[in-house]
Structures are given as structure tokens and as C-alpha cells.
Specification:
The complex is a heterodimer of chains A (494) and B (457). Chain A is of the alpha+beta class and 494 residues long. Chain A is built from ten helices and 24 strands. The radius of gyration of chain B is 24 Å and the shape is globular.
Chain lengths: 494, 457
């Protein structure tokens, strides 16, 4: 799509046209640029060297309380795309028992840019390859059977405009990375050890994040060393014990059992045909003891350089920093404008006082839905990882997911991890392989007995969160400390 | 049919590239998709997409690069730009340690045997009307959600290896409705699939859900304690297990790299029960039939497991090149998996008569693989799951987790239905790529491990 000025003018005139025809609300997201680059080194061979380039406009029309959506990548098709979105909304309005209500909001004008020092798309492919090859070299060893080094860069320039006069410009850049080594254990089964690119919450999110020696370059030896121990390790035996989650695992626990159940569209039943529902209902807010008093969780968290930070959501609402869980008590959800209005109406009280700014779409050709932003556990007062270990009699420390499976209402879960370290009498003793643990969400969080301090906290990045129909893959952040849970079923029954 | 101008542009740029000695493939994907989503008895989203994607892969000796463009292909210059980007990426790439196998359209193909203009042009109002009809037939007191995805897609593939063209056009749909009790919280669902508008029948959904409603309305639900059970898997659950088993155990890459649960077995050796046979059959009309893969290779019936024995493994082009094998036509989104039927009666409840307590789990939710090497999968029951005693439905069951191995579940099948069923496995994450499997309408497995259950549905 070329000539952005003309396209923006077309959008303005078409929003006015559709509004004048009777639409309740109209918005448009114009992706001037949506680029991604994926590089995968597999045993040193460049197996993926792919770039995707796309641009286009997504139009949403609310008509008599019903949404219609249409998208086009053809600059000459914008007028007809508005017509199609409006027609889709009119058709939808024929079957509406719960009309969408947007309420009234003042126009919002603003912009957001991901803090970036070096735009990854300006780095020469040769330089990227040299860096990734160096990482790959660092993972080599005689016992290592497979090595994977992965980098993914995303860049989006988005113009948002709606019929209320809001206009927002977003320039988003995300940098993802992963390195992994694999080897056969003593039973001939493949084990793996990996590490993902993370942030500390400060700084920027461009190529410099990937190239920061503290991230990957200084960790290749550790990955190899842990894998070497893992392949000689005993499997974890079934039993109840304390489980300590490092952020590499804790972020997925938060993602699946705090983030998803607190998406308001799930709570209201709009995801039942695909992702599922939630054990949380509107009566839960302010009343449900979600976890122990050590559990406080937030949305956004003021973290600028995370994939879950975007300034303004795809309704044009500013992203907000607020608590979801306050010392164990459930107090808020991940919310968007239309869902907040519906929830408050249904509950007959103001369950949600503010709009969370969590409506996001994965591309111009998808309509926004309630998503996670950065869903975080706040650092606690139980010290460092070593402090937490020293206060543990019988447990395991686990890191990095291998598998995750969660009940449809997020009420129970089963996770498999890459590695476990046994803890006995306050000391790490040995590495164990094939660790798994399972539990019921509320019981699990109520057994939270220690939360690490800020030295243990980091923002893990997720670039593959799936939800919605049509399906959408979203990028998210999770700031999490080390967390410790007691009396958890771990390992598999014989 | 494919836009003549786009075809002409692609052929022109392909010929130019071939003239310059560039090794390249051009894959055009065009979709017209529609999806209606239902939530809280309303249309919550009514969305249309008309998207065109062009993938160009350039192979320069042992170097490769690719560029995907999503937008309007209105001129040869647009295609030339995409080609130039892919070429530049290939030029700057590090060479592989093996020689990639060039893409080549083996034979000219033009197929549209599963294209239905009525489905391609289906008026969204028809969908809204059908949902409205279901609500009123089953009762407005319930909470309904669902989705109905339908659309047309076409794929056009050219390579500089020769002048052959491969073209595919098809339509597909996946309908679902979920009925939830607003207070008791249980959920019932029904799905329909097909490639023709006429494949959908409102009455079928009403009838299937009506069969289960009394059991759900009249029972508070049953919590299954961990242990070993006889489980009657419905077609969607069986399809998911077979698909996961194939993905983790029957792909050449997993096997070569010793990551699969079949890694210690060789072709000819027993890996599953003797009553289990699985093939990739792109000619089976219960699947969405694709006659060629994304690298231009002809796809044909490909036996994977025969009477429990490992017969062959699926090799995509990259894996074949890396390990010195022949590609088997598996550069696809998903194969057309077909599991052979057995000899069980058509009615699943009749099949478990005399078996005592049986868990009937029609579908699995959120299946994942804690151990590929051991073939262990885990997932939970969701919709329509009930406890059956001597062939009679006793009670719905609460959300129940299975954690077991493919070898056990597909190695202890006591009864397999004599009737097949098409199960649509498509997702809508990326480009429209319809996938369906043909599996027996049920399978009864003994000694299945139940590892957890919730206190609610």
C-alpha cells in the first residue's frame, strides 16, 4: 500500500460516510508497514531465512449493537471494504440478543513508540548471521546432537482512527530470540535445554537486546553444562513436594492460569467455541481469594520495552497499569471498552471502574479482542533464589516449558519442563529429568509460600499466544520473580 | 478461476527469472474467507477477508532466502520486487551443509473437484438464520456460542525448474455451536464440516445435541478419580490423538533426529496395535484433497502404519535433503490422515454394552506432549463427555485429564467403529489451509490413564 496520506484521507472520508449512514461507531487500523523476519539456524544450517511484508486496512463497524469487520490490502479497495464491514454489521444485527455498547469517550490523540536503539531491520543480514553463528558455535559439543538458534523481528507502523475523532500512531518493534541444545539421555530419549530472550523491564527492545552479552552470549556454556548433567540425570519420581518456578517457567504459569482466566471476553463467554471459558465470574471480583497474600499481579506494569506494551489498544484506549490481584484478592481483569460496558451492565454494578486498554488485533486483517498485555507477578519480600532454596526442605526447582495443557475453564493444568533441580534440606542436590507438575489453579496459588525479590524478577517474552476466531497469534510480556508453591503433585504416576 | 492477469504476470516473471538462471519458486495463495462468531446468543463478529499472498523462495547453490508479500499483485514490478528481496536474502545467507532439493512442479495439475460456488458465495445471513433456528429449536434459555468459518482458497505454483503449473481451488467450512447451561455451567457442542454449502444441515445439530440434553439436565455431574479406565473416544478425540501421534512419530525429521516415540523402531516393526492402520491419503474425499504439495511434488496415497507396523515416514523437502532421502510430497500444512475403520457397530453405546463403566470422551481439549520420545500426551475432556454403564449414559463427567502414551491408547483398542467420520482440523491462524482427517467414528481403548479431574465441568 503506497501513498499513506491518500489512504488516511480515504479513511477519514469513509468513516464519515458510514457514520452518516447510521453506524453507531466506526474505526480503522491502517498498517502502513507490518514486517517480520525469521532466522533459524539448525545445527548451523540456515533453515529459515524468511521475511514477510504486508500492509493494509482493517475496518470495524458497529451497527445497532453488532460488529462487522472487513479488511483489504488493496489501496483501491478501501471504499468497498468500508461497505463490506458495514454490510457485515447490518447482517450481524439481525441476530443480537446482547447489543454491544461502547459508551461515550472523549477523543484520544497520541502516539507510542517502542524504545529501540538499533532497529533490527537496519542490521545487515551478514551481521545477524555472524552473531547467530557465534551463538551456535557456543552450543557445540561432542555430546550435543542438535542445536537451534532462532531470531524473530517484528516491526509495525499503525495509524488508528475512529468516528469519535481519536487518532493514534503506533510504531512497534519486537525482538525475539531463543537458543537450544539437545542430546540423548541414558535411556536414548531426547532432552533439551534452552533459553529465551528476556528483558529486565528497563532499556530498549531493538537489536541491542539480542546482542547484549548478558543475554545469550554469556549463557551458552551454562546451557551446555546443564544439558550435560540432564542427560545423565534420573527421572523425577511421582510425589507431592514443593515446586519452585524460575521465571522461564513461571511466566507460562502466569500466562495460562492468571492471564487467560482474567480476559474479560472469556469471562463473559465470548471464547467458549474455541479457547474456552474461565472459572472466574463477575461475582469473583473483590471477593475471590485467588491466591495467598504473597500474590500480587498486575497488567502492563509500566514496562516499556516488552511485546505487551503498545501505548494504546486497538480501540484507541490508553494502556493502563493496574493490579489484577492484590495480596491474593482478585480485583480486576484484562478489559476492553465494549466488554467493560457489557460486564457492568450485566452485573448491575460497576465491577470495572476503568477500561484496561487490552483490546488487540494481531494484524490489519483481524478484529481486536481482549488480550494479555504484560501480565506480571510483582516482586516479593522473600529474598533471592538462594534464600528461597535455603528455606525449602523437600522440593524441586523447574525451568522452561516443554508442554502445557490447561482445562477449558483454566481450572486445572499440567506442565512439563526441561529441567529440575532437586532441593533437599535447603540445598540444591542434583538435576532431575522429565519433570512435570499439575494442579488446580486456585489451590495452587493459595499454596504460594514465597515470592522472590526484584533480583529474581524479569520480563519473559511470549510471541505465540493463540486466541480468537479467526485465530490470532499475539505477542505478550510477563514480568515474574522466582515463586515457590507447596504440596504440589509432580512427576507422573507409574 | 485464477485471475488471468495475475497468472500472466507470474509466468512472465518466472520466465524472466529462469532466463537469468535463478532457481526460484512462486507460490500464490488467494483466499476469500468469512467467519461468523456467536457469543451470548448474538453474532459477536461477522468478518470477511479477501487476501492474496505471494511466497517466493530463491535457491542459490546451498543458500536460500524467501520473501512473503501480502497485498495486491497488480503488476510484474511488484513480483519482481519480491523476487529481488528473496534473491538478496539468498545471496547474503550462509550456505547449508547439504544441497537443497530444488522445487519443481512435477506435472501440470489443475484441480477443483472440491469447489462449490454456493459455499464460496454463501450469504452471511444464511449463517445468522441457521444459528437463530438452532437457538429456537433447542431453547432460548441456554447460552449459545459458536463459529462458522467458510471460504474459498486457491493456490497456484510455478517454479523455474520447468514450465509446469500447479493450480488448486477449493472451498471448505467448519461450523460449531456450543450450548452452555447458564447456571450449571456444562457445555454441549456439535460441529459440521464439508466443502459444499449443502453439507450443512441445521437439523443434524439439533438432533445430536437433543440426544445428550436429558442426561445433562438430569444429573449434577460426576467426578472421575485418577486411575485406569476403559475410554470410548469419539471421532474428534481420536483424530486429535492420531494427528499428534503422526506429527511426533511419523515425520521423517522427528525420526531421523531421534526425537520421536518411534525413534527406536524401524520400518516393518510393530509400533501400535494390530488393528491400527494409518495412511496419508490425499485422494480420500473425507479429507480436503490436495494433489500436490507446496514444492510441486505429486501427492498420492502414502501408507504410514499397517496393522500396527511402522511402514514409512513422511519427508518434507528440507528434511529429505538434509538426510539424503527422497521427499515424499509432505511439504504441506498437514497430511490427509486416514485411519482405517474396524468392525464395531455404528452406535458407540452398543459397542460398550457389557463393558461395565466406560468414559465416553468425544473430544479432547488442549492436548500437548510432555515427552515426544516416550509418546506421552496429555489433554482434558470438555464437551459432551459422559459416564456410560453397560451401554447407557449415566451422567456427564467433570473436566477430566488423560495423560497416557500413543502406544498404550492406540495399542489397546478393543473396538473400532466400522463407520468413518470426517473431522475438520483446520485453524484460521494464518492463510486458509483446510485440513481434515478421516477416522473411525469411535474407538474403545482399555487401560487408559486418567490423572486428574476438576470439581466442575
Amino acid at each position: 500500500m503506497t501513498d499513506p496520506d491518500k489512504i488516511r484521507k480515504d479513511i477519514t472520508s469513509n468513516i464519515a460516510r458510514i457514520s452518516s449512514e447510521g453506524a453507531d461507531y466506526v474505526d480503522a487500523r491502517y498498517y502502513m508497514e507490518d514486517s517480520s523476519e525469521t532466522l533459524v539456524l539448525y545445527d548451523g544450517d540456515l533453515e529459515a531465512n524468511d521475511t514477510t511484508v504486508q500492509s493494509g486496512v482493517g475496518i470495524r463497524v458497529l451497527w445497532n449493537g453488532a460488529w462487522g469487520f472487513a479488511a483489504t490490502s488493496d489501496p483501491s479497495g478501501i471504499h468497498s471494504c468500508f461497505d463490506r464491514a458495514a454490510q457485515n454489521a447490518r447482517t450481524a444485527s439481525e441476530l443480537v440478543r446482547v447489543p454491544v455498547s461502547m459508551g461515550r469517550l472523549d477523543p484520544v490523540r497520541g502516539s507510542f513508540s517502542t524504545p529501540v536503539e538499533v532497529d533490527p531491520f537496519t542490521v545487515d543480514l551478514k551481521d545477524k548471521m555472524a552473531f547467530l553463528t557465534k551463538l551456535d558455535d557456543g552450543l557445540k559439543d561432542d555430546f550435543v546432537l542438535k542445536r537451534v538458534v532462532y531470531a524473530n523481528f517484528m516491526k509495525r507502523r499503525i495509524h488508528f482512527q475512529n468516528s469519535e475523532g481519536s487518532e493514534i500512531r503506533k510504531d512497534l518493534v519486537h525482538t525475539f530470540g531463543m537458543m537450544m541444545a539437545m542430546a540423548l539421555d541414558t535411556d536414548g530419549e531426547m532432552q533439551r535445554r534452552s533459553m529465551n530472550l528476556y528483558t529486565t523491564g528497563d532499556g530498549s527492545a531493538g537489536w541491542e537486546l539480542m546482542a547484549d552479552p548478558k543475554q545469550f552470549l554469556e549463557n551458552t556454556d551454562r546451557i551446555r553444562s546443564e544439558l550435560a548433567q540432564l542427560v545423565r540425570a534420573e527421572p523425577l519420581e511421582y510425589g507431592r513436594r514443593t515446586v519452585i518456578l524460575l521465571p522461564g517457567q513461571g511466566h507460562l504459569q502466569v500466562h495460562e492460569t492468571i492471564g487467560h482466566p482474567l480476559e474479560l471476553d472469556r469471562i463473559l463467554g465470548y471464547e467458549l467455541s474455541y479457547a474456552g471459558g474461565s472459572f472466574v465470574d463477575l461475582d469473583s471480583f473483590g471477593r475471590l481469594q485467588y491466591g495467598s497474600e504473597k500474590l500480587s499481579a498486575s497488567s502492563y506494569g509500566g514496562i516499556a520495552n516488552s511485546p505487551g506494551s503498545f501505548g494504546f489498544d486497538d480501540y484507541g484506549t490508553p494502556e493502563r497499569d493496574y493490579l489484577l490481584i492484590d495480596r491474593g484478592l482478585l480485583v480486576n481483569a484484562l478489559t476492553s471498552r465494549a466488554m467493560v460496558n457489557e460486564a457492568n451492565e450485566r452485573a448491575g454494578r460497576k465491577v470495572f471502574k476503568h477500561i484496561g486498554g487490552a483490546a488487540r488485533a494481531s494484524a490489519f486483517y483481524r478484529a481486536p479482542i481482549d488480550r494479555m498485555t504484560n501480565v506480571n507477578i510483582l516482586p516479593g519480600n522473600d529474598g533471592t533464589l538462594e534464600n528461597i532454596i535455603s528455606a525449602t526442605d523437600d522440593g524441586i526447582i523447574v525451568d522452561n516449558p516443554v508442554s502445557w495443557s490447561i482445562g477449558s475453564n483454566r481450572e486445572h493444568f499440567h506442565f512439563g519442563c526441561e529441567i529440575a533441580w532437586e532441593v533437599k534440606d535447603g540445598r540444591r542436590t542434583r538435576i532431575l529429568r522429565n519433570p512435570t507438575y499439575q494442579g488446580h489453579t486456585l489451590d495452587f496459588y493459595r499454596s504460594l509460600s514465597a515470592v522472590g525479590d526484584s533480583s529474581t524478577w524479569r520480563v519473559e517474552q511470549v510471541n505465540n499466544c493463540g486466541k480468537g476466531e479467526p485465530n490470532q497469534v499475539m505477542q505478550i510480556g510477563h514480568g515474574v520473580p522466582v515463586v515457590k508453591f507447596d504440596d504440589v503433585i509432580s512427576g507422573e504416576r507409574k | 478461476m485464477l485471475d488471468a492477469n495475475i497468472r500472466s504476470i507470474l509466468m512472465q516473471v518466472r520466465d524472466e527469472a529462469a532466463g537469468e538462471g535463478i532457481q526460484a519458486s512462486f507460490l500464490l495463495h488467494h483466499e476469500k474467507s468469512h467467519l461468523m462468531r456467536i457469543g451470548n446468543n448474538s453474532v459477536s463478529l461477522n468478518t470477511s477477508e479477501d487476501l492474496l499472498r505471494l511466497d517466493i523462495v530463491v535457491t542459490d547453490g546451498r543458500r536460500q532466502g524467501s520473501q512473503t508479500f501480502l497485498g495486491a499483485v497488480g503488476s510484474a514490478d511488484t513480483v519482481r520486487e519480491v523476487l529481488a528481496s528473496a534473491r538478496e536474502k539468498a545471496r547474503l545467507a550462509t550456505p547449508k551443509t547439504y544441497q537443497p532439493i530444488p522445487d519443481e512442479v512435477q506435472v501440470t495439475v489443475s484441480e477443483d473437484s472440491q469447489f462449490d460456488i454456493d459455499l464460496a458465495d454463501l450469504d452471511p445471513a444464511v449463517k445468522a438464520g441457521a444459528y437463530g433456528g438452532i437457538f429456537s429449536e433447542l431453547g432460548e434459555e441456554y447460552n449459545y456460542s459458536g463459529s462458522w468459518s467458510s471460504g474459498a482458497m486457491e493456490i497456484y505454483l510455478l517454479t523455474t525448474s520447468n514450465s509446469n503449473e500447479a493450480y488448486h481451488r477449493g472451498t471448505d467450512q467448519l461450523f460449531s455451536v456450543v450450548l452452555k447451561h447458564p447456571e450449571k455451567k456444562w457445555e454441549l457442542t456439535h460441529q459440521q464440516t464439508g466443502w459444499r454449502a449443502g453439507d450443512f444441515d441445521t437439523g443434524r445439530t439439533v438432533a445430536e445435541i437433543s440426544k445428550l440434553l436429558p442426561a445433562y439436565e438430569n444429573s449434577p455431574g460426576y467426578k472421575v478419580e485418577p486411575g485406569e479406565y476403559t475410554v470410548l473416544f469419539g471421532a474428534p478425540a481420536l483424530a486429535e490423538i492420531v494427528e499428534m501421534a503422526a506429527w511426533t512419530g511419523l515425520s521423517g525429521r522427528s525420526w531421523e533426529e531421534k526425537q520421536s516415540w518411534t525413534a527406536k523402531s524401524s520400518p516393518g516393526q510393530s509400533i501400535l496395535g494390530e488393528n491400527i492402520s494409518i495412511a496419508d491419503d490425499p485422494g480420500n474425499p473425507e479429507t480436503f484433497m490436495f494433489g500436490f504439495d507446496n514444492c510441486g511434488r505429486k501427492r498420492r496415497i502414502f501408507p504410514l502404519v499397517g496393522n500396527g507396523d511402522l511402514l514409512s515416514l513422511m519427508y518434507d523437502s528440507g528434511t529429505a535433503a538434509r538426510y539424503g532421502r527422497e521427499p515424499t510430497g509432505h511439504d504441506t500444512g498437514s497430511p490427509s490422515l486416514v485411519m482405517d475403520t474396524g468392525f464395531g457397530p455404528g452406535d458407540p453405546l452398543e459397542a460398550v454394552m457389557g463393558m461395565g463403566r466406560v468414559l465416553y470422551i468425544p473430544a479432547l481439549h488442549y492436548v500437548n506432549i510432555p515427552s515426544r520420545s516416550k509418546g506421552i500426551f496429555t489433554g482434558s475432556s470438555r464437551f459432551n463427555a459422559v459416564l456410560v454403564e453397560n451401554g447407557e449414559i449415566v451422567s456427564p463427567i467433570f473436566s477430566t485429564r488423560i495423560t497416557d502414551s500413543f502406544q498404550n491408547v492406540l495399542g489397546n483398542a478393543a473396538v473400532i467403529s466400522s463407520r468413518s467420520e470426517s473431522v475438520n482440523g483446520s485453524n484460521t491462524y494464518g492463510r486458509r489451509t483446510p485440513v481434515a482427517m478421516s477416522v473411525p467414528s469411535y474407538m474403545v481403548s482399555e487401560g487408559v490413564k486418567i490423572t486428574d479431574s476438576a470439581d466442575s465441568f
